[in-house]
Amino acid sequence: MEYFAVTGGHPLEGTAAVHGAKNSALPILAAALLARGESVIHNCPDLTDVDTALEILTCLGCRARREGRTLLVDTSCAHGTHIPDRLMGRMRASVLFLGALLAREGRAEAGWPGGCALGARPIDLHLAAFQALGARVRDHAEHISCRGRTLRGTRLTLPIPSVGATENAMLAACGAEGVTILQNPAREPEIADLQGFLQAMGAHVEGAGTDTIIIRGGRPLRPAVYRVMADRIVTATYLCSVASAGGEGIFTGTDGSHLRPVLEALTAAGCAIRREPGRVIIRARRPLGRVHITTGPYPAFPTDAQPLLAAALAGGVGESTITETIFDRRFRYVQGLNTLGADICLEGNTARITGRPLHGGRVTAPDLRGGAALVVAALGAEGESRIAGLHHIQRGYEGLEDTLQTLGASIRTVQE
Ligand code: EPZ
């Protein structure tokens, strides 16, 4: 078994770069299927989820290779329409290949997608979008079958602004004859990044970030060269690490523009945050003060960042609350934080955090962001912690250990 050995209790100091966004690279890799030829995607992080996406593309007949942080995906010979269950089950974003395959081949077969166990994670909105575009969809016994040789543009309103359903609808609509008007879409920045890649392919897609996205489909698309945006949740992770341990951090490759609610919360807790072109700077003041936040669809406080803020607040002073409105099992990390001495109690979908000094302990990551939260807390805890379940963390963080070491953290991977 491998684990992070973290000795916390001393401040961080230094400069680190923020890598490309997992939740932008994954839909963009699916979108590469919409054109025949080689797309070049820069600033793609080296993550196990990205590796899974490359395996799916290869299974479908693409040639995919990595050159540093650049991925080259040649779809010229792609012919497959079936995604193996073992790959579908590894992550949630594998579901996005259904929309791309429907647009490219008119059919898609797959098992049920995997991903962090954050509670019920249905895909009914994805499948409803395909049906609205004219596809025949059967989902039975954990197997999904979509058929749609002639997709037609339509007007579609999402009952909830689902990120994945928005992305899947955009991808499938690119293969539909006519105009699709998608209302109440998700407005996350990663949607705008997907729109940017589709536009670079020659697609007529507009409105990402607003309450209506319009796709004029049925046009032949060409391979594109594109650069993925910086990962805003990784940025939040680094900022909360400094907030938890104290000190000062300079994070480059982003200006923090997509993190306003997180920057406001850290400022309210007593940190000094400065945004400059191409970088965001934090000077932490310990102990952190109290903060009350509620998560929600963008531009509200992002659900993915709430475990990270909770971990930083746990070692502060005063009583904070975090109310979660997106996932019903997002608080699985609380048990691990309490093992490290935190005083967090759950009241329905609200975590009530009473700040107090944390101490080291042995914990296991329950999921991707919960695992990162345990690292954030361990950095601010007195003594040594052991954090197992690193495979969760490796899905969404490239070189987390190296980056934190650059900032002066005592963290290393131990194989037992
Ligand atoms: C994306 O997941 C992200 N994943 C998640 O990040 C993120 O937490 C989430 O958006 C919310 O921002 C990727 O982009 C790969 P949703 P997604 O569809 O698309 C319900 C991380 O840590 N829903 O916006 O699965 C759903 O149950 C991951 O990087 C339906 O009911 O999220 C949830 O309650 C974790 N039916 C809500 O919508 C559907 O068909 C929002 O989910 C789809 C979703």
Name the features.
UDP-n-acetylglucosamine1-carboxyvinyl-transferase, Chain; binds ligand EPZ; 4-stranded mixed β-sheet; alpha/beta; 416 residues; 2 domains; elongated
3D architecture notes:
With about 425 residues, the protein is an alpha/beta fold. It folds into 2 domains: about 1-20 and about 230-415, UDP-n-acetylglucosamine1-carboxyvinyl-transferase, Chain, CATH 3.65.10; about 20-225, Enolpyruvate transferase domain (UDP-n-acetylglucosamine1-carboxyvinyl-transferase, Chain), CATH 3.65.10.10. The chain has helices spanning about 20-30, 50-60, 85-90, 95-105, 125-130, 165-175, 190-200, 230-245, 260-270, 305-315, 335-340, 370-380, 390-395, 400-405, and strands at about 1-10, 10-15, 40, 65, 70-75, 80-85, 105-110, 135-140, 145, 150, 155, 175-185, 205, 210-215, 225, 245-250, 270-275, 280-285, 290-295, 320-325, 345, 350-355, 360-365, 385-390, 410-415. A hairpin with a 2-residue loop joins strand 21 and strand 22 (about 350-355). Helix 10 runs parallel beside helix 12. The longest helix is centred in the middle third of the chain and has 14 residues, at about 230-245. It is elongated, with a radius of gyration of 21 Å. The structure holds ligand EPZ. The site of ligand EPZ has 26 residues, from helix 1, helix 5, helix 6 and helix 12.
